[in-house]
Q: What sequence folds into this?
């Protein structure tokens, strides 16, 4: 990392930082990272206390916390199955939370707003690696389009508010995240935690095979959650421009190769049965990461294999199965 972009405690110590979703998976890493950087006034609103779909609750949050910086991570999200089951909720909750929070942050003169978007905002069919300028070149993959478009509207809002109100809102597009403390509930989990749990339970049951959705041909880029948190903190400190920025590794892996890697790391000897009646999701995903490196010195540090080892170890130590 360039010394130009190292963390400066004189930036962080006076900040009053609200991290929505700070008690969640990515949020927990972001909050740890901010504390390491010297944040003394860190506010983590819980949905039971501040429902971000309610403007009265948002107004109360901003009056209670008086933030100088907001990092908006709170989201309703899940894997392909959850997106297919609840597209209406995923659209409404994500759009309304972000739109209202950004509007009231502007009204309260919050100095900076960091909106964390989603790789699902990208078009379904797009040459890899995905460059940020390509985000409008098509419609998202259908199984998660409602979620992706709701999040993409917050990019429009951030740019419009910067243009009209000189509101310092930035927009980040992280790759698929993974790591310890992820969501392993099969009804809500993404591909890596879902597969880790499936393999673990098959081992306990001595099952001769596991079933996996799709064909295995789709590719995904995976970013370790601690790396993502570092990228978010660097952007919060150093980036002040309207263009969206990818956060990723710049490398991808097919789902088939991912499963082969997981079965090797977990020492599972059973067969893999592919349910090709189920969707693959977006065919290809890989991000161009040059803008993040040039704009605020971000590059990922944890390899996929090392991150998977840490995630597997955490799950085995913390699961009740």
A:
């Amino acid at each position: 990392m360039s010394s130009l972009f190292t963390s400066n405690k004189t930036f962080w110590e006076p900040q009053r930082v609200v991290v929505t979703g700070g008690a969640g998976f990515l949020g927990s890493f972001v909050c740890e990272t901010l504390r390491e950087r010297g944040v003394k006034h860190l506010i983590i609103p819980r949905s039971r206390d501040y429902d971000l779909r309610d403007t009265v609750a948002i107004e109360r949050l901003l009056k209670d916390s008086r933030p100088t910086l907001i990092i908006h991570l709170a989201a309703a999200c899940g894997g392909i199955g959850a997106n297919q089951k609840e597209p209406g909720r995923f659209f409404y909750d994500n759009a309304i939370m972000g739109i209202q929070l950004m509007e009231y942050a502007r009204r309260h003169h919050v100095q900076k707003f960091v909106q964390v978007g989603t790789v699902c905002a990208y078009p379904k069919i797009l040459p890899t690696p995905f460059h940020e300028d390509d985000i409008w070149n098509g419609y998202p993959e259908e199984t998660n389009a409602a979620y992706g478009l709701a999040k993409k509207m917050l990019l429009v809002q951030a740019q419009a508010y910067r243009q009209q109100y000189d509101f310092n809102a930035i927009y980040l597009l992280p790759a698929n995240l993974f790591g310890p403390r992820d969501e392993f509930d099969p009804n809500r989990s993404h591909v890596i935690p879902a597969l880790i749990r499936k393999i673990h339970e098959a081992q306990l049951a001595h099952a001769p095979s596991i079933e996996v959705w799709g064909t295995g041909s789709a590719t995904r880029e995976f970013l370790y959650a601690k790396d993502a948190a570092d990228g978010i903190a660097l952007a919060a400190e150093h980036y002040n421009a309207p263009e969206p920025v990818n956060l990723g590794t710049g490398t991808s892996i097919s789902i088939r190769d991912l499963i082969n890697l997981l079965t090797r790391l977990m020492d599972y000897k059973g067969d893999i049965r592919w349910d090709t009646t189920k969707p693959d999701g977006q065919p290809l995903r890989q991000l161009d990461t040059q803008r993040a490196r040039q704009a605020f010195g971000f590059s990922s540090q944890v390899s996929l294999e090392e991150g998977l080892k840490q995630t597997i170890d955490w799950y085995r130590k913390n699961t009740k199965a």
In short: The chain has one domain: 3-180+222-251+285-301. The chain has a mean pLDDT of 94. Residues 3-180+222-251+285-301 form a domain with the Rossmann fold fold (CATH 3.40.50.720).
